[in-house]
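Justification of computing resources. Each target in the renewal requires a structure prediction run like the one illustrated here; the chain below, 359 residues long, is used simply to show the kind of job we budget for.
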Amino acid sequence: MILVTGGAGFIGANFVLDWLAGSSEPVVNLDKLTYAGNLETLSSLQGNPAHIFVHGDIGDADLVSRLLATHQPRAIVNFAAESHVDRSIHGPGDFIQTNVVGTFKLLEATAQYWKALPATEKDAFRFLHVSTDEVYGSLGKDDPAFTEDHPYEPNSPYSASKAASDHLVRAWHHTYGLPVVTTNCSNNYGPYHFPEKLIPLMIVNALAGKPLPVYGDGMQIRDWLYVKDHCSAIRRVLEAGKLGETYNVGGWNEKPNLDIVHTVCALLDDLRPKADGSSYATQITYVTDRPGHDRRYAIDARKLERELGWRPAETFETGIRKTVQWYLDNPDWVTHVQSGAYREWVGKQYGDTADTVGK
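Resulting structure tokens:
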């Protein structure tokens, strides 16, 4: 049994789906179900006894302690986080509460549980903390990519809150001995991505005939990682990562945002051409850049390849085509997540049974 936190969000839900597709080991899935947490993503697991969903907050120490005592997981994979930079600029309080205070509460409950385990189980236990490359700050055009030894230089409330959570995880290892590993990933994309992030926003807006907003000159560079590759990397780190170590996870796909938008438009032109024959690229609109917008991120993932033998399976070209096709094939999911109708779906499908341990 493993405990996954934030397992109804974009990356967490993909991880749960992939885990249960390839393993018979059950998952306890704890998620607060904020706006970006969507149980409809996990609808294929309804009735599957290997998936136990619990509606709750990592900051609820009593709930977490009850879950650990009841289910006795051998590992925790912590995806739970507020993660949208724009939202952190306008409302940083939620990010401090979830990413900093929530992680602290989760670590406290986990450490108490871990200390009481029998020696063999104690040695085998793992706490895997999922983080971001944004904690490292911004790179110049010709700077070398972020390695695990790069100093932390967060520039937004979001990245500062994630940096704080990383430091807490490290401290709980060095001070209390908690067996932790941390992963810092680059920009993820793929199925089930909430349409406020760049790639799904461009797809959804393009199909709706809306403007495709590009910040500033659109030349902000990111490394792009297909979400299912990220999931495979996490599984590998959970399996064989060295205690107390950090592993950068990247897709080896550095591209400017504007190139990403043009690629999405070209794929839509091919897969879902407009009736008038014009390109979706005509909908691109430049908007004022956001405050503190980091110019470039780049991940050096050679440590993960060298020590654990992991490399991404997808190129950007294969991954982005799969992503665009997924959104074309799943318009109902997009409609529900935009309208909030998925919340009604959760109520109808799960009712009060979502919280399996009660209050």
